[in-house]
Design goal:
two-stranded antiparallel ribbon; globular; mainly alpha; 8 helices; 2 domains; three-stranded antiparallel sheet; 213 residues; single chain
Length: 213
């Protein structure tokens, strides 16, 4: 795993299969890789299959961070950026992944059709919230939608209205971490008037399943 993470972030010396004790944590590898790509005279191979911006690299780095956070959770008082790195890499590929799925769905490509449509919809729900900071398909709203900071049954601290007619409207959905250390996004589904959580790990597995057909 560590050699693959090292290759993914573009740090060749970490791609030689060095043991964990020699390479440090996934956090250190990602941090060192960022410094490596940002050094004078060095170019980040954006189009390389092992670039931090590639789907393969993104999947490997996210999975390594998830596994490490599950095995070794952050400690109180410790400066730990793994959650931040995980959220950054998790959100980095959402827009591109949605564009690919949307293009295939729009072209009516037959690979895993039902799964592809479901995957594209999940990616769309997340993408609109994290890139546009809006509720997906908010044009369907017939009246302003109230949001509360309280859990069901609790007295709300604050209630806000999301109005599609408001030019500065914004919705920042909640983000969390699942039991297996993966980033989860809470999305709004207007057709069912409900909200649900979508996990990055589940999305990544679904993409592998759809595109392996």
């Amino acid at each position: 795993m560590w050699s693959r993470v090292g290759a993914a972030i573009g740090f060749p010396q970490y791609a030689q299969g060095l043991p964990m004790a020699a390479t440090g944590s996934a956090q250190n590898l990602v941090s060192d890789g960022s410094k490596h790509h940002g050094a004078p005279g060095l170019k980040c191979p954006v189009h390389s299959p092992w670039s931090p911006f590639s789907a393969r690299a993104n999947r490997i780095v996210c999975r390594a961070l998830e596994d490490e956070l599950t095995r070794s959770p952050p400690k109180d008082g410790e400066m730990d950026f793994r959650d931040n790195y995980l959220m950054m890499f998790s959100e980095l590929r959402i827009g591109a992944a949605y564009a690919i799925c949307f293009a295939l769905k729009d072209a009516e490509i037959a690979i895993g059709r039902a799964q592809l449509v479901s995957l594209a919809e999940d990616l769309r729900l997340i993408r609109v919230q994290i890139e546009k900071h809006q509720i997906p398909s908010d044009w369907k709203l017939k009246e302003p939608l109230p949001f509360s900071t309280a859990e069901p049954g609790e007295a709300p601290e604050r209630v806000t209205l999301y109005d599609k007619a408001d030019p500065v409207r914004a919705h920042i959905g909640r983000i969390g971490v699942s039991d297996r250390g993966s980033i989860v996004w809470e999305v709004v589904e207007l057709p069912t008037h409900s909200m649900r959580w979508i996990e990055r790990h589940t999305l990544a597995d679904a993409m592998l399943d759809v595109f392996s057909k």
